[in-house]
Amino acid sequence: xxxxxxxxxxxxxxxxxxxxxxxxxxxxxxxxxxxxxxxxxxxxxxxxxxxxxxxxxxxxxxxxxxxxxxxxxxxxxxxxxxxxxxxxxxxxxxxxxxxxxxxxxxxxxxxxxxxxxxxxxxxxxxxxxxxxxxxxxxxxxxxxxxxxxxxxxxxxxxxxxxxxxxxxxxxxxxxxxxxxxxxxxxxxxxxxxxxxxxxxxxxxxxxxxxxxxxxxxxxxxxxxxxxxxxxxxxxxxxxxxxxxxxxxxxxxxxxxxxxxxxxxxxxxxxxxxxxxxxxxxxxxxxxxxxxxxxxxxxxxxxxxxxxxxxxxxxxxxxxxxxxxxxxxxxxxxxxxxxxxxxxxxxxxxxxxxxxxxxxxxxxxxxxxxxxxxxxxxxxxxxxxxxxxxxxxxxxxxxxxxxxxxxxxxxxxxxxxxxxxxxxxxxxxxxxxxxxxxxxxxxxxxxxxxxxxxxxxxxxxxxxxxxxxxxxxxxxxxxxxxxxxxxxxxxxxxxxxxxxxxxxxxxxxxxxxxxxxxxxxxxxxxxxxxxxxxxxxxxxxxxxxxxxxxxxxxxxxxxxxxxxxxxxxxxxxxx
Length: 574
Description:
This protein is α/β, with parallel strands linked by helices. Helix content is about 30%, strand content about 20%.
């Protein structure tokens, strides 16, 4: 498989391991929660801050749980004004930090910067996906080839599961170029191609428009695209048993069934005869019936056209025309109508993202967008839930400022645009178009959070603000097991934070006190207390002090049939 090389790759490939685990701090004011309900990470979530830090902080609670990822990263056109901010120690990265990425003529390393920005984020997004999960990435021609090579490498495949081509605008007659590029791409990758499910591709009853005594059916082709020479046994004449009218095979498209099967098909009245439907067809057709218990799967198309159903807030004919085509102009109109300002030049249309959400999710799945922008993905999830009474949850991650212009104007994109949009959609609003129409809310809640301080400081030093016992326990258990911790099973008194049952079982302990006056130790006394209740063969013990000699530990292991791995907090933390 071809691999991609870029400046900084040798460092960036493992950078996600060294990104500190940050706290996620809840902010009640922008949140929308029922009275008495506390903010949490288990519902809809909007996170303000750098998406690399946010994705790393979601691992303990969301790893392997996200069914659908959709991202719309910077296309690296040279005109977006995005800034490289990943804080690596190497000199080349220090030169990049805080610098706006410009055009090719002004910035010879802009493609390297884009690759270095995307690589660790794509790695973490893959970690968050379920085994049957799907990831959609929007892109245009500027980095389409580069992105595909990055995704192929990270997902260990040689090509996307599908490449959708989306028509984003009407062609322009005002351009001087001989070709007016009116499309973008959406790459579809799966964490496990053998397990991925695309439920939105199931055919519905609406696709079977005809009806008789046996139910709804569609008129489908009774021939196949093979010649008489290819399939001589499927080249013959058939007869309408009611009228006696005969129909000879087409030499270039033979019948889809062999004579024996065709005889039964005719006997079962599964053929639509032209002589019984004058003027409607010139060749016999086949009845395909709708079976709700065994729905048929539609093949994935390489094109997204007329993106999908109409969006939530449509109140004039012009909106209907825009949404019917799923163009970028729908995105701008939708955003302005909901919050009264466009802010972004080309936000994605809700109908496009809603089509992807429908394609990849069912009623209780999690949808993640780590380049959330104006919050369109959140709108798509709320609308799809309203349509099928589902309970999908969204996680939106957005920087405070996408560029220096927004920063200079004091525009907090995450709170003032994305969260404001979702808040209005949930509670209802008055449309800002000429009709000033009142639009009913879709219902729902969300927690607003910000990426806070690192859980562990430089060189794994705790710094001034000590993390809580629960925070450290979640981090330790996830890094040891790659599983989410069950907070109900934490026993702070004994230090037991969880266990696994493989190979005789492993117990995980955290002996830590979040203050500066007491250190919890692993001593011989501690081990003798634990062995009375814990029969598992292996113990992993994170502690603040180790008060026993290695030989004492080995003797205890021999006498009690245990294998013990002591780890110092904070220095033994991964």
